[in-house]
UniProtKB/TrEMBL annotation:
Pfam families: TRAP-delta (PF05404). InterPro entries: TRAP-delta. This is Translocon-associated protein subunit delta. Keywords: Disulfide bond, Endoplasmic reticulum, Isopeptide bond, Membrane, Signal, Transmembrane, Transmembrane helix, Ubl conjugation. The keyword Disulfide bond applies. The chain crosses the membrane at residues 132-151. It is found in: Endoplasmic reticulum membrane. Its main location: endoplasmic reticulum.
Amino acid sequence: MLRVVAAFCLIAVTLASRCESPKHSATSYSTTDGFFHYQTAFIAEFTLTCANNVKNMPFYAVIGDTVRAVAISEETSKHQVSWTQEHEKSGAATYEIKIFDEDGIAAWRRDPSVKPLFTIEHYHSGLSRKPFFSSETIALLVTVFALYYAIRQKTELTA
């Protein structure tokens, strides 16, 4: 009898920790400056509500073939996943961030065709490798040098 009660309790806990009918809204960001950064940083932040009001449940993100834990902010109740990647691998592309709960990630590890709770798509526009000096700075330096040269020539002619 004790085994039956323990089995029912285990099933109840398992079912209660599943996110039913997830609704989400997401924002994402990635660095595009290739001059000052050694790697490209990606951040995806989302809010999530489940129909069964599950709280403090761990979520996981799959980016490519890599599983990453999703962090949650206690103040804002927002979830966040972030990662970095070498510039050479961070071309302009759309990255799919698949979000799973514990049961989903366990199933995904057995079979990668398992459908996630939801997917966040982040478009990364690629890197911009701007020169160290802007064209405005160079134009200003040329103007200052020309003005200095003109004033110097004028003082030599009048002296």
